[in-house]
Amino acid sequence: MTRLHTERHLVSRIGWLRAAVLGANDGIVSTASLIVGVAAAATASSEVLVAGIAGLVAGAMSMAAGEYVSVSSQADTEKADLDRERAELAAQPEFERDELADVYVKRGVERAIALKVAEQMMAKDALGAHAHDELGISDSTTARPIQAALTSAATFSVGAAMPLLMVLVSPTRYLVLLVSVASLLFLALLGAIGARAGGANVVRATIRVTFWGALAMALTAGIGALVGRAV
């Protein structure tokens, strides 16, 4: 009897998932910390809201620029490696075949079989074979600067909007408490969603992201309170 076996691998989500989780997490933590810090300095709620909106806009732009620059650097490195590999394939194909075969030998394939596999792989797509097996570059993990920048900016904005909404609905007296509690709940939810989407441990991811968010807000609240008293 023939049985169909379907596997769902999640590695193809690495690029956008990393940028999305990082953006949303940073949006919640940085904006909530800013709001809590400013509010702890006994500032009016309208000023807290303005500070939060400014933090959202500045943070989204910073995330987009930072992701674009860093991922572009990765893309430039990948391109340089591919150009170098393309030139080596044209200049010394036999050496490159042996080099690819060595990769398979290190993975446990017999030398004779590894040479045959290398020849067949290079006959179909020499550069693609070397990119994937020698350099570790594949379609699922290749750098996409624009995608990373847009994803980070969008998810940062969504994350930052959550504590900002709490400013609008929270009484001034309980602003710090309500924003802090709500933001920690948002972080826990984000950690669970990110872990679920990436196939990771949900409990561990939730605890990790909540702990660091709580630490950031506690520090900024303490600094805001001290500055508020001093001023």
Describe this structure in words.
With 231 residues, the chain is mainly α. It has seven helices and no strands.
Query: Could you tell me how far the N terminus lies from the C terminus, measured between alpha carbons in angstroms?
Result: 79 Å
Helix content: over 70%
The total tally of domains equals 1
Structural class: mainly alpha
Features:
231 residues
Outline of the structure:
The chain has 231 residues and is an all-alpha fold. Helix content is 82%, strand content 0%. It is built from seven helices and no strands.
Task: Give the arrangement of secondary structure elements.
Elements: H1 14-40, H2 45-91, H3 93-106, H4 111-133, H5 145-169, H6 175-198, H7 202-230
Helix pairs in contact: 1-2, 1-5, 1-6, 1-7, 2-3, 2-4, 2-5, 3-4, 5-6, 6-7
